[in-house]
Each structure stands twice: as C-alpha cells, then as structure tokens.
Amino acid sequence: MGEVITKLTAQHIFRAGYAAFAQGHRLPDYVRRAAWAILVCRTAVLGGHVQACPEGHIERVWYNSCRHRLCPQCRWLQIELEDDGIRIISARKATRRERAYYEA
Ligand SMILES: [Zn+2]
After folding, report:
1. Domain coverage including residue 20
2. Rounded to the nearest whole angstrom, what is the distance from the C-alpha of residue 69 to the centroid of ligand 1?
3. Can you say whether the dihedral through the CA atoms of 19, 25, 76, 80 is positive or negative?
4. From the CA of 67, how far away is ligand 1's center (Å)?
5. Spacing, Cα 55 to ligand 1 middle (Å)
6. Residue 2 lies in a domain
7. What average pLDDT does the segment 38-50 reach?
8. How many other C-beta atoms can be found within 10 angstroms of the C-beta atom of residue 15?
9. SS3 of 96, please?
10. In a domain? residue 93
11. Would residue 72 count as lying in a domain?
C-alpha cells in the first residue's frame, strides 16, 4: 500500500510529476537545484538526528531541512538545531497577499 497523504504539499506534487516533467524539458540549473531541494527536504537524503526518551519509550527521527529559499517547507522560518536547542537564523514575514491566501 502507498503512502497515506494527510496534507498535500509541494513535495508530494514534485514526487509525482517532476521526473517526467524534467525529462521532457530543458531546465536551467537554478530550477533543477530548487526542485531537488524541494524533493529531498526533510528526508533521509539530507540526514538528520534521533531524539529519544532516556527511558527508551519514545524515539523520533528529525530530518534536516534543505533551507532553499523557494522551498515551501523552509522559507518561513530558517532554524539551526544545536545541542542546546534551536537557533533562529531568519524569519521571513509573510506578505499581505500571502497572509490573505493562508488565512482564506
Ligand atoms: Zn526545504
């Protein structure tokens, strides 16, 4: 059985159609780099770390973000995970048009 999708993301759309699209089109490097970033963002390809309960009850894998400026998963808040917590690199404020879209 395939992956159960609870929320459709740009990454799902790229996974479904980017390879076929890229074969049929000559794409500039910056487009291919952005597509690759969106495809691998928060997957095992970029590595990650395991967060685990010291008692061994819960374990969770956190995959690294691509941090590409066009990646919908990363563009709002860019953070770095460090041993003692999270460091915010930059937070972009949504434009009025983007806020209207997301609040609709
Ligand atoms: Zn990303």
Report:
1. 10-103
2. 8
3. positive
4. 5
5. 32
6. no
7. 94
8. 13
9. helix
10. yes
11. yes
Ligand 1 centre to CA of 62 (Å) is 13
- Any idea what DSSP says for residue 25? S
**Within a domain: residue 4?**
no
Question: Ligand 1 mean position to 84 CA, how many Å?
Answer: 23
Count CB-CB contacts under 10 A for residue 36.
16
Residues lining ion ligand 1 (Cβ < 5 A) are: 41, 65-66, 71, 73-74
Interaxial angle between packed helices 29-40 and 10-24, expressed in degrees from 0 to 180 and rounded to the nearest 10: 140
How many domains in the chain? 1
For ligand 1, the distance from its centroid to the CA atom of residue 78, given in whole angstroms, is: 9
Compute how many other C-beta atoms are within 10 angstroms of the C-beta atom of residue 71.
Answer: 20
Q: Kindly report, residue by residue over 47-103, the tens digit of the pLDDT.
A: 999 989 889 888 999 999 998 888 888 876 555 556 666 666 665 655 555 556 555
Give the pLDDT confidence score for residue 1 in this predicted structure. Answer: 55
Do 39 and 9 contact (CB within 8 A), yes or no?
no
Whether the model pTM is above 0.90: no
